[in-house]
């Protein structure tokens, strides 16, 4: 029998109010994990039904003081951290000429700086007990150029992959496994802003002939964080139905 080894583990999930993050929290709850769920959307976060020991933190992952507050809650409530699955991200459609500095900064702050701040805090805690697992979310936009998504999103997600590799190199010797996922087109609130042409185009470029569900992305993230992936480290996993084959 395959065992995830996640029962009782303290898992921090960001973006847990919606889509892949929410599905991740639900799967981890089913595995008997203890959860710290984070989102900036208080109302939607409170509406996530979690049948496990958990605490919810409403915070903006782009703000260092708010990330500190997340880790204060981890420390106060559980006194340790085993898993970080960082799903929170900002997605906006913008053609290159329309991207101004404010837009660039906002998206890079949430998607890339937020990932950095969370990795820093997570590694600091995981190293104290010599074990931890981190899963960061990039995107197929980092592979394909993300023409529909826009420059800040594509660049931020390529940056997340580089960050994951750096943290893997640094934290592997400390017992912390770090991996990055590049989801393909997935049915969530994030992609609901795209029109039918974009969806049809994604499907036509996907050998499996459909888009993914949030649960399909979440289950892979949970596997990466579990004992089942005990020698997977520094990897970037494309979960895209074959849309892009690295
Ligand atoms: N859906 C897709 O097709 C797709 C494709 C490639 C990559 N991804 C990546 O997968 C991850 C999850 O995406 P999703 O589709 O579930 O998105 P989603 O929009 O459904 O959920 C994202 C969540 O992050 C939260 N969030 C946004 N900014 C935040 C901030 N500053 N602080 C705290 N929370 C914040 C939102 O409130 C939301 O609940 C993201 O990193 C996304 O870039 C998604």
TrEMBL record:
Asked if the record carries the keyword Oxidoreductase, the reply is yes
What are the alphabetically sorted keywords of the record? Oxidoreductase
| Residue intervals of the Ketoreductase domain | 9-188
Q: Which organism is it from?
A: freshwater metagenome
* Record carries keyword RNA-binding: no
Alphabetized GO MF terms: oxidoreductase activity, acting on the CH-OH group of donors, NAD or NADP as acceptor; quinone binding
Family that this chain belongs to: Belongs to the short-chain dehydrogenases/reductases (SDR) family.
Name this polypeptide is given: Unannotated protein
GO terms in the biological process aspect are: fatty acid biosynthetic process
Q: Cross-referenced Pfam families, in alphabetical order?
A: adh_short_C2
